[in-house]
Amino acid sequence: MRQDYISWDQYFMGISLMSAMRSKDPNTQVGACIVSAEHKIVGIGYNGFPRGVSDLDFPWQREGEFLETKYPYVVHAEQNAILNSTGSLNGCRIYVSLFPCHECAKNIIQSGIKEVIYASDKYAGTDSIRASKKMLDASKVVYRQMPAMQLRVEIGNEIPENDHAE
Ligand code: ZN
Prior knowledge:
This protein is an alpha/beta fold. Helices cover 28% and strands 16% of the residues. It contains 5 helices and 5 strands, in the order αββαβαβαβα.
């Protein structure tokens, strides 16, 4: 048996980070992956505009008049993962590349998710994240950061040679 296989945490965080790469946001790409107690993926998402709200017609910028920024239009990765989910999220955990904002924390709590595993907490200390943590604490949703070491996963070394079209 192989010994260097990746952990469940690495697997699902990897999928979350991969999902983030689908985002059209030029500044912040976030991915989320919701997993059941049986290690089944039940929801997945990244930050983007709602269906039919075109990336070509709506703005991705962060500054200016409210209607000219992304803020009124964007659906966060966690929200998308919850909205795209295939079943009950009660007792599930969510892997996110960035600590959830206060709006997403409310969605996470109300959906029944019980654990948040995050990669980055770069907005720690902002009011949004402080409010988020206060609510998660009060609701007994636990959260933990994945060690940076575990985020580094080498891929590609087992791709069959024949499948390469050079
Ligand atoms: Zn959010």
